[in-house]
Structure formats: C-alpha cells, structure tokens
Design a protein that fits this description.
The complex is a heterodimer of chains A (about 150) and B (about 170). Chain A is mainly alpha-helical. Chain A folds into two domains: about 110 residues, no CATH class; about 35 residues. Chain A contains six helices and no strands. In chain A, helix 5 packs antiparallel against helix 6. The longest helix of chain A is centred in the last third of the chain and has 26 residues. Chain A is globular, with a radius of gyration of 18 Å. Chain B is mainly α and about 170 residues long. Chain B has two domains: about 90 residues, no CATH class; about 80 residues, no CATH class. Helices cover about 70% and strands about 0% of the residues of chain B. In chain B, helix 2 packs across helix 4 and helix 7 packs across helix 8. The longest helix of chain B has 25 residues. Chain B is globular, with a radius of gyration of 18 Å. Chain B starts with 11 loop residues before the first helix and ends with a helix. Classes of the chains: A mainly alpha (about 150), B mainly alpha (about 170). At the A-B interface, helix 1, helix 2, helix 3, helix 4 and helix 5 of A face helix 1, helix 2, helix 4, helix 6 and helix 7 of B.
Chain lengths: ~150, ~170
Amino acid sequence: MVLLYLLLGTAFGFVLSRSGAADYDYVQGMFLFQKFQLYGIIGTAVAVTAPGLWLLKRWGRTAFGEPLAVKPKPRHPGNVLGGVLFGAGWAITGMCPGPILVNIGEGKLYALGALAGVLCGTTLFGVLYERLQRPLGLPALRLGTGDG
Amino acid sequence: MLILHHLTPLHWALAGALVGVITLLLLWLTNQRLGISTGFENVCSLVVNTPYLRRDEITKSHGFRLPFLGGLVLGGVISALAGGGWAPIWDLGRFDATFNVGHAGKLLWMFAGGVLIGAGTRMAGGCTSGHGIFGLSNLEGASLVSTLSFLGAGIVVANLVYRVVA
C-alpha cells in the first residue's frame, strides 16, 4: 500500500510539475486573468472526477472489495477565513500545498522557505486550536476542520 | 513556457484529465480521498505533541499521507531529471522581472506566504486538492465556500502585488 501511495503521489507530482500548476508565472497568470491554463486544469479535473466519483459511490466498493468510504468535510466559519488566508499565501508564493513539494523536488530552492512557513503555520494552528475553536466557530477537536 | 527548463506545458485538458484519473484511482484502489494539506499536520505531529495534531485522524493516517507527500517531491525530481536535468533553481519568472530582493529576500517572502498557507489551509480544512478538486467533485458545500474564498483572495492579493504595489 505504501508503494501505491508513493506511486500515485509521484504521478500527481509529475503532472503538477509539467502542467504549470507548480509554476510561479502560471499561478500569477491565473490570478491576474492572463492565462487560462490553470482554470482549464481545475475545471477539467472536476469534470472528470465528479462523474467518476458518482459512479464509484453507486458501485460502493473499492477495487479490493472494501466498502467505499467518502466522508464529506464539515462546513464551518473557518472555511471562509482559512480560505482567505490560504488564498493570500497562494498568491504570495505562487504555490499551493502540492506544488510546494513539487517545486522542492524540481530544485527550486526558494520553495524550502515556503515549506518552512507552512510547517510553522500548521503547527501554530494546531497549538492554538483549543483557543481558536470557540471564537472562530470551528468543529470539535476530535473531528477537525476537514481532512484533505 | 515553464520556469523549469523552459518546457512547454501539457495541454490543460490532458493535465486536468490526468489529475482526475489519479484522484479516482486513489479512491478506487486505496479508499482515500485526495487531499494534500492535511499531510502537513502529519509531518508536524511527528515532532509537535499537541492534542489537535495528535488526534486519531492524523496519527492513523501516517501510512497514507507521508508516502503520498514524499511522492510529490519525487515527481518533481523525476520531472526535472527527464526534462533537462536536475539543478538548483532560483529563477522566479515574473517576480524577478518586477522585484529585486536576492535569495534571502525570496526565502523570507516565501516563508511569510507559507505561514498563511499552513494556517489557512488547516483552518479551512483543505486546499486546492481536497476542497477544489475532490470536494467540488463531490458537491460539498464546505468545499464550494472554501474554493471561492481562496480563489477570491488569491485574485485580490496577486492584483495588489502586480497592479498596485509593482
């Protein structure tokens, strides 16, 4: 199983690397409405995944006969505030989480700065969770904000 | 042209279809929903002992998320090697053409953005993959709200950086 995760992650990373999704100029081109590329990729990915997912859920089993488990993410006020913070970071770095790792693999050394920042930001959020939970209206600690 | 060896990128329709196929294979073969940013919680939980980062969902998913994240790095390495050779890169395209800050300045800029990405994705409960691709495909309300929020904020901030400040 570990090998399969590694393999699928590698394939995903290769596609992100070669499509522009892990490229600073393509990301800025998306946000500045100068390049269609990344809108096309996200749109096509959803157009392929949505019907496939619907079929898989109807079928209800994995390739190995396990019952399919698709847990929807909880809706909470953190979706908006967290989304805004993340979007700002995406525009500043030109990378979302996957491409940070892809860029490090490609040899883009400045992406190490982004990774260090992400790990600090994640730790900060984790450590402060119990204090942020009530004021921000976040889900119970054991549920989390959404995994993915 | 990509910053990486000035390669011509894959057509968006092909790249998008491949992303969709990989997402579906991950679910069909391994029963996992695509999502990358939660994996950073797995990484942090290896060294930081705090209840949120040590909740069951994290401690029980190391076997999936850590190799998947490792694969993303490996995919980048293979892409560079196959596309003209691996070499350290400091080029940042449009950023270099607009700002002159040097290596340390770039690392600081990236670090600051990274903190926002780490805290923001975890607060929103997902990123472009978990909300934008999987969640939207599964017609989840939280994912629609999150995706509109991060795309909207990205558009505002990129325009501030390149059309107001620069």
